[in-house]
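FW: tagging you since you asked about this chain on Friday. Here's the raw sequence from the shared folder, copied in full. Didn't touch anything.
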Amino acid sequence: MKAKMSLLAILLVTFTSLTMAQGGGFQMPSPEERTKTTMEKLADLKLDKDQSTKTETIFTDFYKSQAKRMEEMRSGGGDRETMRAEFEKMTTERDEKLKKVFSSDQFKKFKDEIEPTLRQRRGGGGGRE
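HL: got it, structure written out here
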């Protein structure tokens, strides 16, 4: 019985390791899912209804533009540095729109506390350098 359990554990670990090495099937959340998550995190800003509606539109447009650009990069093999510059520009444009919606205190809190939690987390690279 112990031998069977040990064998099962070894097989499970092996299968899990192989799956993780192949990318594990990670899929980026949709722009709508990302917007929903973002809006939940923005609850600390205590946005009024008008601010909330405008903010949701800004983030939906931002995430859709990002997704479109990522898809273009995957299919066309775009240059990484060019993409980074484009994403920085998109983020700057998003922030300019948010500044018009948020109070200065809300925007500061967004940049300092909330925005860092919005960045996509990558799975561990297993010590690649």
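FW: Residues 124-129 have pLDDT under 50 and may be disordered.
HL: agreed, and The two ends are 42 Å apart (CA to CA).
FW: great, closing this out.
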